Q: What sequence folds into this?
């Protein structure tokens, strides 16, 4: 294998790992590392975008219902404008096959659809995710909508409605600008959250710095907020005395603001055995019951699906259930 082929394979594997981490929700450290990885090589962003397109094609398999066949219809993986045509010259090259294999191996980490069942388990799905051509990521809260208009000189996005979180691939020669209402949020490589409400706009920085300007301001006019740093949230509104106000948020307040990023599980009078079955769907570290009686305990509450450790601590403090660590398994039993 040549050096170029080896580098391509390594970038593909790294991109697949980042996509898996991204879909379950970045930790702050992972977000920093992801931005650093994107900035190291422009091909990294392109690889993320390529894998995302392949993954989107696999989403078409949801249309397959195995009522009359044990194999999916191959036409489902064809582009829309070709699905009605006769299948011809379908050749899967080794690179595409490798990509699909990686994506399929991660398919279980994709966000589920909202579900409510009789057992009292409700899943609040994580945000929809949009990967841009440069590898930047937009996480869209419920009903949020954006419009993307990239040019060679600027990466322009307009937040039309709702709330979105942006993780921007670093490129000092091609700024990333989000238009929201009468304001522009400018960043080169950073991460921030924007919420558009009827009366105001809020911008919360989760990584790096951003600059805020009013759309009507001339290029010679100083920015409305020259530098908004990590942990700072700006509220922008013409009703405010200065047109804006900036607040420093604690880590707990930031976590509360961004709670919509993570898939949440809500339980109402649900047996513990069903609760841990749900947690096990979203975590590599699995929960196991030491005995059937413990599994009959009834649980209620709302939890992050990817924070199994916090759930175990709750069981310890509130239900006197201890967890025995056995590698990737936590065995639960009454004290």
A:
């Amino acid at each position: 294998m040549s050096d170029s082929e080896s580098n391509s394979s390594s970038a593909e594997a790294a991109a697949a790992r980042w996509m898996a981490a991204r879909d379950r929700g970045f930790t702050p450290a992972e977000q920093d590392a992801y931005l650093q990885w994107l900035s190291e090589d422009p091909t990294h962003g392109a690889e993320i975008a390529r894998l995302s397109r392949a993954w989107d094609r696999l989403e078409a398999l949801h249309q397959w219902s195995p009522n009359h066949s044990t194999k999916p219809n191959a036409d489902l993986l064809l582009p829309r404008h070709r699905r009605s045509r006769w299948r011809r010259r379908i050749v899967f090259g080794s690179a595409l096959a490798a990509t699909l294999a990686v994506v399929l191996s991660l398919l279980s980490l994709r966000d589920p659809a909202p579900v409510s069942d009789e057992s009292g388990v409700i899943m609040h799905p994580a945000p929809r995710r949009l990967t841009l051509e440069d590898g930047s990521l937009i996480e869209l809260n419920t009903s949020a909508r954006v419009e993307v208009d990239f040019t060679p000189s600027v990466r322009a996005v307009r937040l039309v409605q709702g709330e979105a979180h942006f993780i921007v691939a670093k490129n000092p020669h091609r700024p990333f600008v989000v238009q929201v209402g009468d304001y522009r949020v400018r960043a080169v490589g950073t991460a921030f959250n924007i919420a558009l409400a009827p009366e105001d706009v809020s911008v919360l920085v989760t990584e790096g710095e951003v600059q805020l300007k009013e759309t009507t301001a001339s290029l010679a006019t100083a920015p409305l907020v020259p530098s908004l740093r990590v942990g700072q949230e700006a509220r922008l509104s013409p009703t405010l005395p200065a047109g804006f106000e900036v607040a420093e948020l604690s880590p707990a307040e930031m976590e509360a603001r961004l709670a919509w990023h993570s898939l949440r599980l809500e339980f109402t009078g649900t047996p513990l055995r069903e609760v841990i079955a749900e947690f096990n769907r979203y975590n590599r570290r699995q929960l196991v019951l030491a005995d059937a009686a413990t599994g009959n305990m009834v649980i209620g509450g709302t939890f992050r699906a990817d924070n199994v450790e916090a759930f175990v601590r709750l069981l310890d403090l509130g239900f006197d259930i201890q967890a025995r660590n056995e590698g990737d398994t936590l065995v639960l039993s009454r004290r």
Notes: Confidence is low (pLDDT under 50) at residues 60-71, 73-119. The chain is about 30% helix and 30% strand. The chain has three domains: 3-110, 126-257, 263-334. Helices lie at 3-24, 28-40, 42-58, 94-105, 251-257, 272-282, 292-295, 308-319.
